[in-house]
Structures are given as structure tokens and as C-alpha cells.
Design a protein that fits this description.
two-stranded antiparallel ribbon; 13 helices; globular; binds flavin mononucleotide
């Protein structure tokens, strides 16, 4: 039997399959099902700053100004956030009692204001780690790329100054120089980086002439973006890399680990095939390792990453060349 155990941000996981932050883990029953299906670790649904604000607004209404209404209140109300922070902290405590796999909380704030306080409460509630879902929409024409990156560093520094549990940063793919930016994130104390978040996308309904929501779920081909960056960065950064987006099968898991991923995070495929599908993926991973003669994940990790490659230049190509794709 192949050894699937792995270390991720200092935590011991029985295998590298993590369930990504999503609604599958927003209730205790879901968390127990995920653990029973064999996940190596779970990232809880994010606690959103907007939820926190909503609770604050409710408190203000109740205790300070019962007639107070504002645009901000309407906005927050419309966000329709599902869990309040108190329930969230309770969920962490219950999850820690109910399952033995690492429970990683997830925090999504917009401003730097609340990161610290809630990170502390999350740690106190017993989370094994914290994933920072810093989903900043960079659309201010007066802000440079460097300004945006500094915001990430500031948030990470504040959280790291406040808590002792390991911290991961889940980032999007839209940075000018991902190599430099991610190495800075590691230097600022991130124990792991999650490549990548998949942001909300919209479409256009031509019949009704209005915006429509594009599906929230990924397709498997999307796993090539994290694959590329993990292959390029494995062995060069001082933190673990988790692959996220488009990982739908055992084959994709194998590819991400060969590229250098420490763990993989799954979401969309578990909505379509059910959480039990984790068992099938684990079996597929073990079978592949046995067929190829790998006894542990460490033996195969990064084998097809840039650092171990005899042709490192191939990982950096942006344009098509005939020798690679057969056409010009
Ligand atoms: C319904 C749904 C809810 C999600 N909620 C969160 C969330 O609360 N926090 C977060 O960081 N990512 C969230 N995500 C993003 C996933 O964690 C994941 O990064 C993304 O779906 C890409 O992985 P996939 O291709 O396996 O779906 C959500 C995704 C879906 C589909």
C-alpha cells in the first residue's frame, strides 16, 4: 500500500485530498460526511467580513438606534451571507470535537480592519489553521499593482502578528509577477499558498439583453493554470503549495503532485459527483502510484516540476512553437 500521508502547513494529513472552502462544509453534518469520505483535511466555508458587518448593524439597531437605516445596511442585508461569526466559531468548536482530520477555517475580508480580531477568535475556537481568502477586486485606476500587493502583505502581517496557528493565503491568478509576489507572501509568514481562487464570472444573456451568472463550477481543463504555476514554483518557495481549481479526477491529482503540489483542494467535482467520490479519487491515486512503483507522495512530488526538469525553459514558454504543438 502506498503511503499517502502528507504534511501541509505543518499539519499532518492522512492523504493530500482537501475539500476546498465551500458550502459543503458550512454545517456540521457536511463536515462529518467529508471526514467519513476520506478527506485528508477540510477548509470550512469562509467567514465573510460582510457577515460580520451585518451582525454589527443588527446590534446597533437593537441596542443603539432602533430606527437607524442606511444604504450600508441595505447593502449588507442584500449580500445574504449565510453564517454569522458566532455560529461560525461554534461550528469550528463542534467540528474539532466531531472529526479527527485537520479543520482549517477561512476568512474573507475586504478591508484590513477586521482580519486581526476574527483571526484571533478563530484560533481560540480551535481551528488547526487559517486560510486567508484575500479576494481584493483591483479595479481602482489610481492604485498600482504594488499597492495591491502591499495590501496582501499588510493583511498577512497583521494576522501573523495575532495568531500562532499556521496561515495559508488563497490567491487569484491576476498578479503581474506571481513568482516575486508569492515569494514575498512566504517571507511575510504564509505557511502555504493556494493556487488559485476561482472568482465569480458573469455572462450576457443575448435574448433578455442583461447580465447573467456564469456557472459557479469549474471544468477540468481549468486545472492547467494551477498546474503551470505549481510546476514553475515548486522547490523555489519557502512554503507549501496547494492546487485548487479544476481538479476533478485522480489523474488531475496525480498531475498536480507531480508538478509539486503538497495537497489538492476539491470543490466543483464534489457537487456534481457527491462527497463520496473522494474515495474513488483516493483509490485512483493509490493505484497509479502502485503501477508506477511509487511508495510515497514524497517520492513523486515535483518530479515534473521545473526545478527537476532537464528542459526548464519549456515551463516558461508563453507562445506556441511548432516543436511543442506541431503547428505554427
Ligand atoms: C458554491 C461554492 C461556494 C464557494 N465558497 C467559497 C468560500 O466561501 N471561500 C472560498 O475561499 N472559496 C469558495 N469557493 C471557491 C472554492 O473553494 C474553489 O476555490 C473553487 O470552486 C475552485 O475549485 P474547483 O474547481 O474544485 O471548484 C466556493 C465555490 C463554490 C462552487
Amino acid at each position: 500500500m502506498a503511503d499517502l500521508s502528507t504534511k501541509y502547513m505543518g499539519l499532518k494529513l492522512a492523504n493530500p485530498l482537501m475539500v476546498a472552502s465551500c458550502s459543503l462544509s458550512k454545517k456540521l453534518e457536511g463536515i462529518i460526511r467529508i471526514a467519513d469520505s476520506g478527506a485528508g483535511a477540510i477548509v470550512l466555508k469562509s467567514l465573510f467580513e460582510e457577515q460580520i458587518q451585518k451582525e454589527m448593524v443588527e446590534d446597533i439597531e437593537k441596542h443603539i438606534a432602533p430606527s437607524w437605516h442606511s444604504e450600508a445596511y441595505d447593502y449588507v442585508e442584500k449580500m445574504g451571507m449565510e453564517l454569522g461569526p458566532r455560529e461560525y466559531l461554534g461550528l469550528i468548536e463542534e467540528a474539532k470535537k466531531a472529526v479527527s482530520i485537520p479543520v482549517i477555517a477561512s476568512l474573507n475580508c475586504v478591508s484590513t480592519r477586521w482580519w486581526k480580531d476574527y483571526a484571533k477568535q478563530i484560533e481560540t475556537a480551535g481551528a488547526d489553521g487559517l486560510e486567508l481568502n484575500i479576494a481584493y477586486m483591483a479595479n481602482d485606476m489610481n492604485k498600482s499593482g504594488s499597492d495591491v500587493e502591499k495590501l496582501y502583505f499588510r493583511v498577512l502581517e497583521r494576522v501573523k502578528d495575532t495568531i500562532n496557528i499556521p496561515v495559508a493565503v488563497k490567491l487569484g491568478p491576476y498578479f503581474t509577477n506571481i513568482s516575486q509576489f508569492t515569494s514575498q507572501l512566504c517571507r511575510h509568514g504564509a505557511s502555504a499558498l493556494v493556487f488559485f481562487n476561482r472568482f465569480y464570472q458573469f455572462d450576457i444573456d443575448l435574448e433578455q439583453m442583461k447580465l447573467s451568472a456564469a456557472g459557479p463550477f469549474s471544468s477540468e481543463s481549468e486545472m492547467r493554470l494551477p498546474l503551470k504555476w505549481i510546476a514553475q514554483l515548486h522547490g523555489k518557495l519557502e512554503c507549501d503549495l496547494a492546487a485548487s481549481t479544476g481538479i476533478h479526477s485522480a489523474e488531475s491529482v496525480v498531475k498536480q503532485i507531480l508538478a509539486g503540489a503538497q495537497t489538492v483542494q476539491l470543490c466543483s467535482v464534489l457537487y456534481s459527483k457527491g462527497v463520496d467520490y473522494l474515495k474513488e479519487i483516493l483509490e485512483g491515486l493509490e493505484t497509479w502510484m502502485e503501477t508506477k512503483g511509487y511508495g510515497s507522495l514524497d517520492q513523486m512530488r515535483g518530479k515534473l516540476g521545473q526545478v527537476e526538469s532537464k528542459n526548464p525553459e519549456l515551463y516558461e514558454r508563453l507562445q506556441y512553437i511548432k516543436v511543442l504543438v506541431g503547428i505554427e
